[in-house]
Amino acid sequence: MPYDDTDLTPKLAEAARQVEICNACRYCEGYCAVFPAMFKERAFGAGDLTQLANLCHNCRGCYYACQYTEPHEFALNLPAALAEARHETWERFAWPAAPARLFQRSGVALATALVFGIAALFWAAAALAPASGDGFYAVLAHGTMVAIFLPAFLLPLVAICIGLRRYWTEVGGQRITLAHLRDAGRSAATMRNLAGGQGQGCNFEDEDRFTNARRHAHQAVMWGFLLCFASTASGTVLHYVFDMPAPYGLFSLPKLLGVPGGLLLTIGTAALVRLKIKADPALGAPALWGAEMAFVLLLGLTGLTGLMLYAATGTTFVAPLLAIHLGAVLTFFLSTPYSKMAHGFYRMAALIRDAQVKRG
Amino acid sequence: MTSDTRYDVIVVGGGNAALCAAIEAAEAGCRVILLESAPRAYRGGNSRHTRNFRCMHDGPLSVLTDSYGEDEYFDDLMRVVKGKTDEHLARLCIRRSEDCLPWMEAHGVRFQPSLSGTLSLSRTNAFFLGGGKALVNAYYRTAEDLGVTVLYDAEVTHLHADGNTVTGVDVAHGGETTTLHGTSVVVASGGFQADLDWLARAWGPSARNFLIRGTPYNRGVVLRDMLDQGAESVGDPTQCHAVAIDGRAPKFDGGIVTRLDCVPFSVVVNRDGQRFYDEGEDVWPKRYAIWGRLVAAQPDQVGYAIIDSKSLELFMPSVFPPIKADTIEGLAQQLGLPGRQLRDTIDAFNAACPADPEQRFHPTELDGLATDGLDPPKTNWARPITEPPFYGYALRPGVTFTYLGLKVDDTARVRSAAGPYTNLWAAGEIMAGSILGQGYLAGFGMTIGTVFGRIAGQEAAAHAL
């Protein structure tokens, strides 16, 4: 029933209030996917708002273009309303919910987890020191690494899948086809929703000036992360399928993927940190600023220590750097369903759902 | 800011026309100051509420499809102004609009295809991506990058004139009033619709009940000052352009979202529960402008549009949810209308509707579904109001702009009683009455502002350099 907001949480109700004003205006139609999706509806239930919130990439073009922002009594701040609603959905869908409440909101919690993660790796290196081995396997045996990282990779993956399942049910998602994946993949690959609709970019670090700085920084982080992930995966394949254990030379697949990946990840996160410091926190979810920043720094630390580890090959720095790097990776993996990293998965789900709606 | 700083061009106002003038003058190499009476958050006058620009074009241009020639454009104008225009100025404005679109794009404005759910304007009107405030933001960026000095909260209270030459501009800013000196002056400070006292003097006391759709900063201070000094005026001093908007809209600045498109599918009654005009006279884009005036003529300047559940989704969603009830009497009670009278009005209307409306009803075109023997009749879309729940919206007149302005020639130069001013130009709403004597044509205000803003800026610069 239109205008019946009784089943909404306060944050979704506020998003609904704002979205209904947007729907009567429509001036922002061309900025991103959120508005065309919104203008198909007349009334907004929890599923609609959850989908819109996760489709929003916080480019802020609509905020600076809006004739109804404060001090106007309508007090529109759609990027903030959707950011608040978005984070709430991630907490609601997370399994289990408690760590999501912790890591979504507290940068200190993530930093503490990092300290524990690194300490655990130092302990493992000291207590479980292998009798022999090359490169970093001299510090920590391959079998020990697998014993630590296989569950640390698979368990969060299960948790993410449970969250995505809940998301899909709430937004009324249908069977996914290759075409949906292709549309969503293209959108993510080009960060179309950070392009401002015409390639001019976001209104992020300098009020209403459009720039592609955030889009490009995010691209670097995303592609850097994916390259690093591919590097690890290729190492696994070389190890098990071709019986070629590490260390690998510069012209090996893991290094050809990992070195540029690490560079992109490090540079991209540094750029994101710089932009985030300049941007107005009131246009996001201000209470979560610290946790988001901590997550970006954790990602950057992972990339940077990975590169340093490679640079330190053959020196005495390998052992401590390996513990720091693997500690960061461990913390990153374990916190993935509960940290800002979850956004990547929900964002992808939102893009797939949007492709379904667009294709009818 | 010091009073001994001399500017080449002083621009009074901070909306589209003012910005176009300031940018043109700055690009010509002038030292320019722009005086915006609003605070930064509300800069841009009524331009911040606009959404498109009506543009002549020979073939597809940017987001505009097909072509839109001078004669067709002029005919569209004549249809709304009913002869009240200066044909020479109007045609000049129309012809110059074609050059303006690429100029706007080159100065930061972005366009998008015609918005969804709106009347089809894709051939005639180029929509701003993000709307008028995004355009205003882009122009301020451009002006500041060109070195234009911008002052906010800077209200111009008086222009000093010696004969037909402006010698100084008094501006109240930061608690004190300073006289600025400029070789050329452009006034682009809008109409007077936000001065309710003036509106009440011009229209009558009922104007105090009108809502003002746009900025509260268009108080006509400079217009009044210039008219008092004998500048030639144009346009009916008593008239304003008003449309019927949601009665719950804020007093000022409600903008686009307060419009209500439900009238053609409704029965509209006054405070006493009586109908007063044919709700189905024509399609809404051709009728919305007369309903402000119709509602203004009713007691307490208020009307109530009543629909039933059949019609709820036939028009653009409105910003405020409608009042809803399961019975006509219940709806009357919530709207503060006499229940018995509303019941009688609806019953009489329903009885006069054709017997088989559903097959013939066509919401997007004149379907000829007319009442029989009702006064006033409803000549299209006459379906009985029978399916609960029933919905009601209060309607009030929302003033968009006023017609009284400064008379200008084709170089945007203002005229005094003693002939043209040597160094004063006007652009935008303050002179729009020269071209738009009555009625309104969607997107034409921005065209007048852009064309004459640019001309004023160029002329002012040529005089100063």
UniProtKB/TrEMBL annotation, chain A:
TM segment ranges: 108-129, 135-164, 220-242, 257-275, 287-311, 317-338
Presence of the UniProt keyword Transmembrane helix in the record: yes
InterPro entries tied to this protein: Citrate_utilization_prot_B, NarG-like_sf
Keywords from the UniProt entry: Membrane, Transmembrane, Transmembrane helix
SUPFAM superfamilies: 4Fe-4S ferredoxins, Respiratory nitrate reductase 1 gamma chain
NCBIfam families, sorted: CitB
Identification of the protein by name: Tricarballylate utilization 4Fe-4S protein TcuB
Taxonomic classification: Bacteria, Pseudomonadati, Pseudomonadota, Alphaproteobacteria, Rhodobacterales
Automatic annotation (TrEMBL), chain B:
Domain of life, source organism: Bacteria
Lipoprotein keyword on record: no
Cofactors: FAD
Pfam families cross-referenced by the UniProt entry: FAD_binding_2 (PF00890)
Keywords from the named record: FAD, Flavoprotein, Oxidoreductase
Domain FAD-dependent oxidoreductase 2 FAD-binding residues, every copy: 8-437
InterPro entries linked to this entry: CobZ, FAD-dep_OxRdtase_2_FAD-bd, FAD-oxidoreductase_2, FAD/NAD-bd_sf, Succ_DH/fumarate_Rdtase_cat_sf
Protein name in the entry: FAD-dependent tricarballylate dehydrogenase TcuA
Organism: Thalassococcus profundi
Lineage: Bacteria, Pseudomonadati, Pseudomonadota, Alphaproteobacteria, Rhodobacterales
Gene it is expressed from: cobZ
